[in-house]
Amino acid sequence: MSAPINPSLKDLPKVSIDLKSQLEGFNPDAMKKAETAIKNVLPSAEDVAAEKTQQTLIAGIEAFDATKLKHTETQEKNPLPDKMAIEQEKDKQQFISGIENFDPAKLKHAQTMEKNPLPTKETIDAKKIDD
Q: What does residue 26 show for φ and ψ, rounded to 5 degrees?
């Protein structure tokens, strides 16, 4: 059952006489002035534009059709070294460790023989006098 559109007087709720007299005698000029504090600030135009851009971006991502993508082959720009390069690196490390652990006591003594000796001071002085 629904309520009638135009209720009759008997269907209206009963209001006490005291409340009725107070409502009829209400004077809005007797109210105190009060400042209204806005607690829910409306967003600025920049905020609305930024949110709209973000929603458009998200909608574009959600509606993206992956079937339009083309297949591509991945090319490695920094490939791992092959077996030969690894072996060469090991040989270099052994060579360096051989140098670091070198024992000079194992060297044989050698006699140095000058094949092109420098001239003595007397020979140089004699040439200066001759020139």
A: -70, 130
